[in-house]
Amino acid sequence: MAAYILRRLALMIPTLFGIMAVSFIVIQFAPGGPVEQVVASLQGQGGGAADRLGGGGGGEAAAMSGESSGYRGAQGLDPEFIKRLEQQFGFDKPPLERFATMIWDYARFDFGTSFFSNATVVDLIIQKLPVSISLGLWITLLSYIISIPLGIRKALKEGSRFDTWTSAVIIVAYAIPGFLFAVLLIVLFAGGSFLDWFPLRGLTSDNWAQLSWPERIVDYFWHLTLPLIALSLSAFATTTLLTKNSFLDEIRKQYVTTARAKGLTERRVLYGHVFRNAMLIIVAGFPGAFISAFFSGSLLIETIFSLDGLGLLSFESIYKRDYPVVFATLYIFSLIGLLTTLISDLTYTWIDPRIDFEKREV
C-alpha cells in the first residue's frame, strides 16, 4: 500500500503541472487582462486615479501620446505609465519566465498578493472559509442523513406506492434550479412579499459578539436556514438513488438468500450482512462529496443570500482578471481534489480489505 500511495503522490506532480500549464496558456489569449482593467477604469478619471493605480506623476499618466501601447483603450495614455503598470503586474517578463516563477512559488505555497484588493491570496481565502465550511459541511451532513435512510427504505419497498411517490418527489426536486427556489424562499420568508422570519445577509447578525454562546448558535443556524434549504433541494437525489440501487444489488445476491435460508431474521440479514457491503460505495465517496460541496458550493446561492464564500471569490477574481487569486484557487482546489481522490481510494480499502490497489496499475 505504501508503494501505491507514493506512486499516486508522484503522479500528482505532472497532473498539477498540466492543469496549471493549460490554464496559463488559455489565460494568455483571454482579452481584458489586469492592465486593460486599469486602463478602462482610468478613462475619464484624470491623472489622480492614474497616479494612485500606476505609481508616478498624475499628469504623466494622462498625457496624450501618439504611440500605441498595444492595449485596447490605452490610446492617449503615456506609454511610460503603461510600462509601469506592466511592471506592477509582472507582465514586463516573458510568459515562460512568469509561468516558471509561478510554479516555483506555488511549490513553496507562496501564492502572492491580489492585484486589486491589496491583500495576500492566503488571507483572502481564509476570510472566505467560514462561509464555504458552513455550506459544505452542513449540506453534506444533511444530504447523507436524508439520503441513506430514504434510499434503504425505497430499496425495501421497491415498487410500492412509497417508492413511486418518493421517486417522483426526488426527480421534481432535482429538476428545480436551486437559485429559483432560493428566490421563492426569500419572497415567502425573508421579507419579500409575505413573511419576514429570516435574515438575508451574512452568517451572523451585527450584534453577534454581544450574544451568549447558545444565542450565537441559534443566530448562526438562523442565518443558514434558507441557504441550506435552497442547496439541499436537489443535493440528496443522487445519493438516495445510489443507496437504493446499491442495496437492491446486494439484496439480490446469493449470500442473502443463504442467510435467510439459515433462519436469520430480516433485520439481521439487512443490517448484519447487506448494510456493510451496500454502504461501501456510499461511505467511500464521503470525502469526495464533502470536498465537492465545500469548494464548489453554489455561486448563485452565495450571491442571492449575500454569503461571501470561495465560490464568489473565484468568480469575482475571474471577472476582474485578478490572476494571483485565479491561479492560486485553481492550484489549491486541484491539489485538494487529487488528495481527496486518493483518500477515497484508501477509504475503500479500509472498509473492504478485499480491495487491494497495490496489485493494480495506477
TrEMBL record:
Compartments reported by the entry: Cell inner membrane; Cell membrane
GO CC field: plasma membrane
Gene3D superfamilies hit by this protein: MetI-like
The ABC transmembrane type-1 domain, residue ranges: 129-344
Keyword set includes Protease: no
Primary residence: membrane
Membrane topology: Multi-pass membrane protein
Transport found in the keyword field: yes
Parts of the chain that traverse the membrane: 9-30, 131-152, 164-190, 220-243, 278-305, 325-351
InterPro entries named among the record's database cross-references: MetI-like, MetI-like_sf
CDD domains, per database record: TM_PBP2
Keywords of the record: Cell inner membrane, Cell membrane, Membrane, Transmembrane, Transmembrane helix, Transport
GO biological process assignments: microcin transport; transmembrane transport
Family to which this protein belongs: Belongs to the binding-protein-dependent transport system permease family.
Protein name as catalogued: Microcin ABC transporter permease
Source organism: Aureimonas ureilytica
